[in-house]
What does this fold into?
Amino acid sequence: MRVLVEPATIVCAHGGTIPQRASQGFVTVMGAPVLIEPDPVPRRVDHCPLPPPQKKCLTTITVTAGYSRFVTIGGRPVCLETLAGLTEGSPVGTWRVLASGQALVECSG
It folds into this structure.
């Protein structure tokens, strides 16, 4: 599984984009900071197309899978390409990784 870096492509189930910002800058891959817990939450969701009367996804609220059990930075697990979670849309939405942002570094769960 690939390690996620700041330019990773993460989207809600409806196609809205979720920009990432790494909370650490000590470890980089190809010049991009590696994402760690809790970087994916809370993050805003841009351009969720969910139509009314449903509430668009606006923010990520939790991670349900995708943190490494073995690799950490500063004691916090790194994010893997299997990262997924929930948004606070109504009904509650999901989000997932489309692209890790790099193709060089992999690790096992």
